[in-house]
Structures are given as structure tokens and as C-alpha cells.
């Protein structure tokens, strides 16, 4: 190709596609390909056909995936998913009445019929208020503990620090449950009872398999055992609630996983506090908080 009158290259076809996607070259960049008598604009070359084909293939795969997800809320066709749309209501002001309206969703009186389910994807915001409230609580406890070093406050730090992210994520998935057929009461009950049951079942499985030294295989088995423990409880609640939507399953799975993550984090934090002090406990709470987003909950 030619840049500012200087010939650069040669490059492979994959290189050219990467240059274009990374905005290193433009449509009016001169390029030359073997077999062509003269230089052409990139937009007139064979490369652009390959680029369009690659874009089309990627879009086709994405459209197939989103079409399936879109059917969960009663809509047809592919959807244009953008995170800024999903989280567009987070920074908007909402009234107390709006929050109360959300809190009563999922009851026998407020669950919509299937034909009444909104075709629009939910735009959750309540989870951010819950998260903000828990973070403010954590900060107050943290500075109180730092100023007065009262041991009683450290238990509060462990509890709030362990539950802030998982509990907020649970609220997020509850808001994203478009059918609006599971109440917050059911979710909170599932969060505590179901989560503890999944931990109990996991501990039973650990006793059966008796994992001691954590090598590669043992670490792999730990993950399998934990997931099996959660899946059994998730399956029970799906059966108990007689759910009919995939989004219900995602919500139930996230709820059980959130509790598992929260209680596990509190245990690690307590061990760190007893063995290494409050600084180690804070590190555990912080690292486990952000990692729980992609670990047990999601």
C-alpha cells in the first residue's frame, strides 16, 4: 500500500483487514494487489469485498444469537444490543413511586399475561441504587473501624463487603426478567435459603470426594463440585416455581450463584482477618467483590 507517497509492505490479506478495522488505513488509501496493472483505492480493491464478507459473517452469527434471546421476551428477529441502552436509566432520576412499583412486580396481582409482556428490553436502574446504598454503608463502617478500631465493626465490614456486589447483581437480573413473574420476596427467599442449601450440598460432595492437595486436577474438580451443588438447587427452584422462560432460569441461576459467592467471600474474609489482620481482610473483600461478577454469579 501507499501512505503519503511512500510504498509500504507487502502485507497479507489478513493484515490489510486488520489495518482497515483498526482505522490505520482508509477507503481512499492506495493499495496494490498482485495481478493488478495499477494502484487502486482500498474501496475499489478486492480487500473491501473480503472485509464486507467478514463483517457480514460476524453480523450473521450475532444476529442468530440475539434472535434467540429476543424470542425470550416475545419479540421476533435480531436486536441491536448496546450496553448504553441497557444502562441508560442508571444515571437518570427516579421517584420513590417508581421504585415501589418495581418492588411489587411478580405477585399474583401484578404478573402480566404472556401476551401483555413488554416487547421492549428492560432498562434496569434499581440495582445501582442498591449497590450505592451498600457501598455507602461499607464506607461508613470502614472509616468507623479505622478511627475507633472497634472489633464489632469488622463483622459488619465483612458482611456488607461480601454481599454488596452479589446482592446488587441479583437485583440487576431480577430487573432484567422481562416476564415480571417472580416477586422480589421469592428472590430474596431463594437468595438466602437456596444459596445456603447449595453451599450445604457442595460441602457434602466435598466430603464424598475428599479433595486434599490442590493440584491441577483437584482444582478442576473443585469447580465441577461447586457447579453441581449449585445446579441441583437451581433445578429444584426452577421445578418448584414452574418457570416457563429462559430469563427465569437466568435469574434463578444468578440468585443462587450470588449467595454462594457472598457466603464464600465472607468465609475467606474472616480467615484473612484472623490470620493476617484487617488489611488482608479488606484485600480479600475487594478482590472477591469484582471477581464475583464473572465467577459464581454470571
Helix-strand layout with pairing:
Elements lengths: L1 E2 L2 E2 L5 H9 L8 E2 L8 E2 L4 H26 L11 H4 L9 H8 L22 H23 L2 H25 L8 H26 L6 H26 L4 H31 L1 H14 L7
Antiparallel strand pairs: 1-2, 3-4
Helix pairs in contact: 1-2, 5-6, 6-9, 6-10, 7-8, 7-9, 8-9, 9-10
GO molecular function, one term: peptidase activity
Pfam families: GYF_2, PrsW-protease
Organism: Salicibibacter cibi
Question: What do these coordinates show?
Answer:
64% of the residues lie in helices and 3% in strands. The two termini are 45 Å apart. The radius of gyration is 26 Å and the shape is extended. 26% of the residues are buried. The model is unreliable at 51-61 (pLDDT under 50). It is an all-alpha fold and 298 residues long. The longest helix is centred in the last third of the chain and has 31 residues, at 246-276. It is built from ten helices and four strands. Helix 5 (126-148) packs antiparallel against helix 6. The protein has two domains: 2-71; 84-291, no CATH class. The chain has helices at residues 13-21, 46-71, 83-86, 96-103, 126-148, 151-175, 184-209, 216-241, 246-276, 278-291, and strands spanning 2-3, 6-7, 30-31, 40-41. The strands form two sheets. It has a two-stranded antiparallel sheet. Strands 3-4 form a two-stranded antiparallel sheet. Keywords: Membrane, Transmembrane, Transmembrane helix. One of its GO terms (molecular function) is peptidase activity. The chain crosses the membrane at residues 126-146, 152-175, 187-209, 215-238, 245-263. It comes from Salicibibacter cibi. Pfam families: GYF_2 (PF14237), PrsW-protease (PF13367).
Amino acid at each position: 500500500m501507499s501512505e503519503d507517497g511512500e510504498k509500504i509492505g507487502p502485507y497479507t490479506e489478513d493484515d490489510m483487514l486488520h489495518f482497515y478495522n483498526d482505522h490505520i488505513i482508509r477507503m481512499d488509501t492506495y493499495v496494490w494487489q498482485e495481478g493488478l496493472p495499477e494502484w487502486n483505492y482500498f474501496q475499489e480493491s478486492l480487500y473491501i469485498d473480503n472485509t464486507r464478507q467478514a463483517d457480514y459473517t460476524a453480523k450473521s452469527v450475532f444476529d442468530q444469537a440475539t434472535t434467540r434471546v429476543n424470542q425470550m421476551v416475545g419479540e421476533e428477529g435480531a436486536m441491536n444490543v448496546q450496553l448504553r441502552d441497557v444502562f441508560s436509566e442508571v444515571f437518570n432520576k427516579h421517584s420513590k413511586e417508581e421504585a415501589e412499583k418495581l418492588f411489587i412486580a411478580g405477585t399474583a396481582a401484578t404478573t402480566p399475561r404472556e401476551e401483555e409482556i413488554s416487547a421492549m428490553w428492560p432498562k434496569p436502574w434499581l440495582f445501582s441504587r442498591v449497590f450505592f446504598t451498600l457501598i455507602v454503608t461499607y464506607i461508613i463502617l470502614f472509616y468507623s473501624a479505622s478511627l475507633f478500631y472497634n472489633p464489632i465493626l469488622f463483622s459488619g465490614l465483612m458482611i456488607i463487603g461480601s454481599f454488596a456486589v452479589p446482592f446488587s447483581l441479583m437485583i440487576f437480573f431480577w430487573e432484567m426478567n422481562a416476564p415480571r413473574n417472580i416477586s422480589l420476596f421469592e428472590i430474596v427467599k431463594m437468595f438466602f435459603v437456596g444459596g445456603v442449601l447449595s453451599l450445604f450440598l457442595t460441602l457434602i460432595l466435598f466430603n464424598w470426594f475428599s479433595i486434599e492437595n490442590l493440584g491441577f486436577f483437584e482444582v478442576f474438580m473443585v469447580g465441577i463440585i461447586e457447579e453441581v451443588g449449585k445446579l441441583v438447587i437451581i433445578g429444584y427452584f426452577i421445578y418448584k416455581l414452574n418457570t416457563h422462560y429462559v430469563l427465569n432460569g437466568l435469574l434463578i441461576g444468578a440468585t443462587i450463584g450470588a449467595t454462594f459467592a457472598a457466603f464464600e467471600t465472607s468465609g475467606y474474609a474472616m480467615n484473612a482477618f484472623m490470620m493476617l489482620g484487617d488489611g488482608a481482610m479488606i484485600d480479600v473483600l475487594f478482590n472477591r467483590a469484582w471477581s464475583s461478577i464473572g465467577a459464581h454469579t454470571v
